[in-house]
Amino acid sequence: MIQTHRLSKLFKVTTTHGSLSQNGPITYYCVLTVKLYECAMIGKFNVTCLGRRHQILLGIPWLHAMDLLICWKAGTLFLPHTPKSDLVEEDIDTE
């Protein structure tokens, strides 16, 4: 089970359609190690119910900070290697 932590300041979520989330404000977050292809990272992810259709929603601030390479035609993401991501990947491989 993923461990969650209560946010010190709650915030409202606006959906991609411009309306407020029906699930109310974001109240919890979790810290996860995420591996995309050959690159790993540790991230803080806000927790909410997205319904059956979606498993994850990546926000513009996260996408901007990660500077992903996105191939819209193929529907793929590529996360460039960084010195810190290389260290995280070494930790994952030794567990």
Lay out the secondary structure.
Elements: E1 5-11, E2 26-36, E3 39-47, H1 60-66, E4 69-71, E5 76-78, H2 83-94
Antiparallel strand pairs: 1-2, 2-3, 4-5
The overall pLDDT, averaged over residues, is 76
The number of helical runs is 2
Overall structural class, as computed from helix and strand content, comes to: alpha+beta
What share of the residues lie within helices? 10-25%
* Oligomer designation: single chain
Tell me the domain tally: 1
Describe the global form. globular
Number of strands: 5
Give the strand order of the largest sheet, numbering strands 1, 2, ... along the chain: 1-2-3
* Estimated radius of gyration: 15 Å
Largest sheet: 3 strands, antiparallel
- Bin the strand percentage: 25-35%
> What gap, in angstroms, lies between the N and C termini?
18 Å
The ordered string of helix (H) and strand (E) elements is EEEHEEH
Taking pLDDT < 50 over at least 5 consecutive residues as the criterion, the unreliable ranges are none
